[in-house]
Amino acid sequence: MKSLPIIVVVVLSGCVHTNYTQLSLAQRLVGTWYYSDRGTYHHDRKSCLFKESGKVECDVKQSGFANGFGDAHFHKTTGSWRIYKTQLTVIEAPTYAPNNVHTWKMKVDKLTQNQMILSNEQAYREVWQKVTD
């Protein structure tokens, strides 16, 4: 009779725990993601919190270098996101200019627990790293 409580606990824990691969793309996207693009004359970074509610908040840091001089720009954006099949659409605007709305659409090529690979029709590719759930 002592084994019955153990069996109940094991069965119930299996009902609560969902395998990560069984989650939808939208469920896997929720959390904070980080992207960095570094070139000879620039270093752009973006950290975005994708919320379950479909809202997104990003911190953007853009740095440019030319003739030994550098220039940096920091700002935040807010907006919304959605996924249809494998298409991620983000509609965002900088908090300092909320009427300057920008929409970007990318195909989700890969989405694991710690990495997201996005691409567009022009073969542009971004590799994002998961920071938090």
How many strands?
A: 8
- Provide the helix percentage: 10-25%
β-strand percent reads: over 45%
Distance between the termini: 40 Å
- Strands side by side in the biggest sheet: 1-2-3-4-5-6-7-8
Q: Note the quaternary state here.
A: single chain
Summarize the helix and strand pattern as letters: HHEEEEEEEE
* Low-pLDDT runs: 4-17
What is the overall shape? globular
Number of helices: 2
As a whole number of angstroms, the C-alpha radius of gyration is 20 Å
Structural class: mainly beta
**On the 0-100 scale, what is the average pLDDT?**
86
Biggest β-sheet strands, sense, barrel: 8 strands, antiparallel, barrel
Topology:
Elements lengths: L2 H14 L8 H5 L1 E8 L3 E9 L4 E12 L2 E16 L2 E8 L7 E10 L3 E5 L5 E8 L1
Antiparallel strand pairs: 1-2, 1-8, 2-3, 3-4, 4-5, 5-6, 6-7, 7-8
What labels describe this entry?
133 residues; mainly beta; eight-stranded antiparallel barrel
Describe this protein's structure.
With 133 residues, the protein is mostly beta strands. The chain has two helices and eight strands. It has helices spanning 3-16, 25-29; strands at 31-38, 42-50, 55-66, 69-84, 87-94, 102-111, 115-119, 125-132. An eight-stranded antiparallel β-barrel has the order 1-2-3-4-5-6-7-8. β4 and β5 (87-94) form a beta hairpin. The radius of gyration is 20 Å and the shape is globular. It starts with a helix and ends with a strand. The relative contact order is 0.16.
In short:
This protein is mainly β. It contains 2 helices and 8 strands.
